[in-house]
Amino acid sequence: MKPMRQAGFLLSALFVTTAAYSQQVTPAAKRLSLNFSPGFFTSGKTVVYGAGAEAEFYSTGSVSTRTDLYGYAGQQKEGALRQSYQLMIGLVYNFNRGSSFSYFAGFQPGIGMASAEMTTGGISALKPYPILSPLFGMHWFFTKHAHVTFSVRYVFGELSTADTGAVYLSEVRGGVALGCLF
Fold it and tell me: Of 29, 94, 132, 175, which residue is 20 to 30 A from 141 by alpha carbon distance?
């Protein structure tokens, strides 16, 4: 069998077996994962790469509480922004919670800490700024305890201080995460 056929066969078999498996996300379940999240700044047309962690607590019903922590993987070289960290906490609606493929949409307010080029030269210390972020995506529970999450979000944010002026930090961010459910 040719390598492409083998890969296609294995991928198909994986999807068929996981589609037949129904993941029951029970009340009081917790989901933890690590993610890789490239983003695109809407003001500076700049691509940034970040890493983060997600924690989600499933209560009864379709609504869960989700916390995301995010940071840039490297220091920004172009534009005013040099470094940024974000913490978001919010609610997520899970559309089909008992399935292997669980779609979700949510909203997370939060706080960011960023350093930027100062108008007088040099780099500022980390300064706080507010953020708001709608998000949507899909969890793929491929075993009882393991999953992959694909997500897209828009992060609204602006760092504005006397030292830095206005630094627009709004971005479109995608993410791929690998985690566990317990």
Answer: 132
* CA pair distance 67, 26, nearest whole angstrom: 19
In degrees and rounded to multiples of 5, residue 119 shows phi and psi of -65, -25
Torsion on CA atoms 102, 103, 109, 114, rounded to nearest 10: 90
pLDDT tens-digit map of 163-173? 777 888 899 99
Ramachandran assignment for 18, one of left (phi > 0), alpha (psi -120 to 50 degrees), beta (any other): alpha
pTM for the full predicted model: 0.80
Rounded Cα distance, 89 and 68, in Å:
7
Burial of 121 (0-12, 13-18, 19+ CB in 10 A): exposed
How many residues are there in the chain?
182
**Cα–Cα distance, 22 to 15 (Å, whole number):** 12
Question: What is the rounded distance in angstroms from the CA atom of residue 97 to the CA atom of residue 24?
Answer: 7
Q: Which residue has the higher pLDDT, 160 or 53?
A: 53
Note the pLDDT tens digit of each residue in 21-58.
Answer: 445 566 568 999 999 999 998 887 788 899 999 999 98
